[in-house]
Amino acid sequence: MDIFIRSVAVLSRACGFVAGSLILISIFVVTHMVVQRYAFGQPTIWQTEFVIYALIASTLIGSPYVLLLRGHVNMDILPIYAGPRLRFALAMVASVGALGFCLLLFWFGAWYWHEAWSKDWHSDTLWRVPLWIPHLSLPVGMGILSLQYVADILSLVTGRTLPFGLPPKTGTDALVESFPAHVDTLT
């Protein structure tokens, strides 16, 4: 099980690298587009469409990395004050529900990608990019995100991680300890 969890973590980190690279490439393409259009007065054909697809792909493919780092928005006011059993139950309900949603997106995204690939769909722009390429980011991103959720659920069930990453204490002590140390000096 440790091998699976570590392998999924490596895969999620690779997704983070790909997502960051897509954002960096998009920055360069937008700069190229501006220079080409305004400095040289030449039309742009592929740049806008590429940047749109790349930023969407970076969002979808980067989502497993965000989950791995717990970088998503988390409403944890109830788990902070909940006891260990309720905290565990809330974490399981949230994780299993999110996993189900990601699996649905994976399934329908794979179906949509296959349709674009098998019917040879192209965009309606001058670039005429084959649409299976940008549509691939949905099943890939959601598939790896689903694996990351499975790894998180396994870590939670086996006690490798705490629910919501919170310490086992509850009540006001846990709330006070969750703030950084420098907050006390401000009051």
UniProtKB/TrEMBL annotation:
Protein name: TRAP transporter small permease protein
Keyword Nucleus in record: no
Signal peptide start-end: none
Species this protein is from: Skermanella stibiiresistens SB22
Domain of life: Bacteria
Gene Ontology CC terms, in alphabetical order: plasma membrane
GO terms for biological process, alphabetical: C4-dicarboxylate transport
Assembly notes: The complex comprises the extracytoplasmic solute receptor protein and the two transmembrane proteins.
Matching Pfam families: DctQ (PF04290)
Sequence intervals crossing the membrane: 7-30, 50-68, 88-112, 132-151
Assigned protein family: Belongs to the TRAP transporter small permease family.
Example GO molecular function: transmembrane transporter activity
Subcellular location field: Cell inner membrane
